[in-house]
Structure prediction request, 385 residues.
Amino acid sequence: MAMEIHLFVPTFRVEECLQEIRECLEKGWTGLGFKTGAFEQAWKDYTGVSHAHFVNSCTAGLHLAVHILKKRLEWNDGDEIITTPITFVSTNHVIVYENLKPVFADVDQYLCLDPVDVEKKLSEKTRAVMFVGLAGNTGQYDKIVDICRQNGLALILDAAHMSGTRLRGQHIGKEADATVFSFHAVKNLPTADGGMVCFSSAEDDELARKLTWLGINKDTYSRTVGGGAYKWMYEVEHVGFKYHGNSIMAAIGLVQLKYLDQGNAYRRQLADWYTSALTGHANIQIVPVAPDCEPSRHLFQVLVDNRDELILALNENGVYPGVHYRDNTEYIMYQYANGTCPHAHEVSGRLLSLPLHLRMTKDDVDRVSELVIKHAGKLRRQNKK
Ligand SMILES: Cc1ncc(COP(=O)(O)O)c(C=O)c1O
Prediction:
């Protein structure tokens, strides 16, 4: 049988990563500080964001964003954040962590929040909008930014898929009150786990640095570097969390960042090959990229009528696609909102992410595309009988 083609296979520059990690081991510093500071600076230089704090996951960063904005803007328990049902559950769980209510708005043709439905879902209790750049797409983000400004709402950007995404030539991340990236094992900038929370306000960033280390007001690195009495002394000002990133992950991240643009360019090439092969087939709808967006292309998504059967047919041929994501209002946790987002509900049963990673070749894309064309068509005809 031909080689298996998997959805995600991360690429690491092994020798370079080992060299960066070796520096941590030789110095005897694998924790917070040292490489985490270097990675934060490199991320600011790359994206142009004013503040960047390296955390142990995007989920942790999103939670921190909601927590800090709630505190600073004095939101009450039960206040609402408008969010999307087509996302990984992290996006919505972090709202619940803070005793706030996720109010779901529908998605548009880009599978991102639909500004028209967001406006319909505004209420007296709305405090913020959580936008997810699904697959690295910016969707109608500009309109969401405008809605937030016009209505005095905070904006959080879940940029888990958006490392390297540019809108009109500018890296995404400067418009929101907080933008959070993921460096999870299979993201465009894979480490093993990690994330970057980027606040627009210096005070939010400063508070985040304390809260990711249990609310302690000095990190161990600054207490260790240099000498002097009372280095050991710290104050605990808040009930914080254990959310900070570590130097081993940051060491890998520093290397991966050097190759992010090159990798994303190749992802766009793979997506272009898919698009050429799959365009013009009535049974296969390609999820479009928004105008002016240079996407990270974390995913290549299509909509098909026989998604579940098609997955089985692809699996039988050694091809393993994925689904991003099931409509969150179908989960027990968020069932209260079921029926409020009809487009999300409809696409949830038809969405498919085709394999997309840097080890794939044009031949792989052609093989997957041929199988999709063959089985999407065949099974649809069978269904019609
Ligand atoms: C849209 C979205 N948001 C948040 C996350 C959470 O990222 P992490 O695994 O870094 O916590 C993910 C990860 O899959 C995601 O896809």
Q: What stands out?
A: The chain has a mean pLDDT of 95. The first helix runs from residue 14 to 27. The pocket of pyridoxal-5'-phosphate is lined by residues 57-59, 87-88, 90-91, 132, 158, 160-161, 182, 184, 195 (CB under 6 Å).
